[in-house]
Amino acid sequence: MMTSLGPNRHLIGRAPDLVARELATPALVIDLDAFQANLAKMADLVGSAGGKVRPHAKAHKSSLIGRRQIEAGAVGLCCATVREAEVLAEAGLPGLLVTTPVVTPSMVARLVAAAEKADDFMVVVDSLTGVETLAEHARVSRPVGVLVDIDMGLGRDGLVDPAEAVALARRIDELPQLAYRGVQAYYGHLQHVKTLADRHAKIAEQWENLARFLETLGAAGLAPEIISGGGTGTHHLDLAHGPFTEIQPGSYLFMDKQYGEVEIAPGGSPFATSLTVAARVVSIAQPDRVIIDAGSKAVSTDYGPALLAKGAPDGATYQFMGDEHGAIRMPEGANRPPLGAIIELVAPHCDPTANLHDRFHVIQGGRLVDIWPIEARGY
Amino acid sequence: MMTSLGPNRHLIGRAPDLVARELATPALVIDLDAFQANLAKMADLVGSAGGKVRPHAKAHKSSLIGRRQIEAGAVGLCCATVREAEVLAEAGLPGLLVTTPVVTPSMVARLVAAAEKADDFMVVVDSLTGVETLAEHARVSRPVGVLVDIDMGLGRDGLVDPAEAVALARRIDELPQLAYRGVQAYYGHLQHVKTLADRHAKIAEQWENLARFLETLGAAGLAPEIISGGGTGTHHLDLAHGPFTEIQPGSYLFMDKQYGEVEIAPGGSPFATSLTVAARVVSIAQPDRVIIDAGSKAVSTDYGPALLAKGAPDGATYQFMGDEHGAIRMPEGANRPPLGAIIELVAPHCDPTANLHDRFHVIQGGRLVDIWPIEARGY
Fold it and tell me: N or C end of chain B, less CB within 10 A?
């Protein structure tokens, strides 16, 4: 079995030309300068707005990246899976919030075990069954924090009726092994609304929806301490005008094709692409294209073809060609990259692309400076 | 870190009701009876036709499954990645064939190292650079087998000119550290042509294309010993009328939504679905649907929504709802499955779905009889 650093570990710290020649591909690559700029920029924006950020670890599934986010001032990290929570808790990262309901007893038991290892651990619930299952596993000596999950028009998890939110919050509040902390109200479906104006109009409707919940909870003496929501696409509006005590962005670290098409903030995106998939030309047998070793098992297929970042001539386009390959179609008259040349792709969608890989290859000035395991991928 | 058998290992051999209650989800599941029937059926079909099969391991990336295929009579296994070849060679499986060109020196070195561990190891090439790079790493005392890769209209890897195939074959034949074994001629793009008649017409054109190569190679004294090609969708025609000495099917073990729409053989498919993703209902807060914990990180997104296999009422449909969730939309008047209920999905496409997971959960009669690691996933 491969070690967790994989087949490129011997290239760490070596000369850029050796890395260019020898890097095993496809390889998920982080441009460290762009990554650090994104990390710092979000910290600045949140700080200037007097807000808080609990970044979503589903984007990277890596404890090393999570730790950097905490060091940059994040109050904690959001987790989409039990495995993410387990891995980040094992690394001792504080303020973990499991952002979608878990109801299977064996999985709730794992969450409670993770909560023993890391401070200020929270989960969301949207059912009384969820509350009771959690209460069966949690201990009075170390209560698990709970947020009531509110639907913000996404139509996925989350309550639609404020009275139900009160009933849940009250029950959580009664149980000594649970600690009622507030609400989560996430509008994932509005993150990619293309113009800022349209997005503002749509999320403002949901702020009104949330206001009904907050009023009803307040009137019942259950005003939330934490109101968690928002993401990369809405962060500007959330920080300036939103009802949240904290935001949950994930993609801002990496960016992708999908966010590249969104007007994220006035004057352009504060975040730059830092994540690419490095592939190599492995066949030049066809006249109008070259074939690279990155296909649907290296790049997510949920938002059309990948964009070309580096290595291909202007006007070239990427096309999926099966599990492990893609074609770079050449514009007329362009020189084809030679066999073995590296071509870098921008992912259509960063989260599921990172999930296909086992490690990030961290590049700075052409040098492979580190390899970060994506140790919370999978189930 | 999780062991390779994952969070469900304690359920192996336990009572079906406990498995139903406790199985951590999403979990990739193999129905062992259907799987074994598919395995046996392909062996029968190939045997009756007097053919050979070298199944494609890209579908499962598992040495335990590969071993079962060898035990069922396969002459070897095809590999799509260096990692697949490494893992299967480490397990001592014979007859490995790397089905797409590898040209990076570090990766070619890994292939040659794998070839030292397993008998009858072969790779394909479609460039002189590929041949020379391989020759630089291979040893005269243990020659690496080589197939010349021929394009069959797929437009990916593979030569389009018979004269080039002769040049490559001749050069391979000259080099004592390489062994010229024949050709690969794969038409992946024709596997899913819906009707048998259309598929037959399209592949017959490619058989003519291949005949030109075979003639030219024969005239040059380089007649191939091995002619490898074909897949699950074309296996019936390949075995009955095709030019191949062996076929390379992968999906026949599992089947999926995509192959479910294809007329694979006269009288219906000889293979049944054996692979599903088991998910659980985690939210019932919305009136017209339930939410399950399987989204785009548990089920491939390259062929539309998943089909519902078990657990949901007739007429219900699956819709992706982000990385980790899906909605099961209920037909009017249907009873909604309760919180915690297991819903099984048929993958839109089996290969990239298996690649999202770390292990197969092998079920027989409701019992979890084994867990098989997908140890060759990733890079």
Answer: N
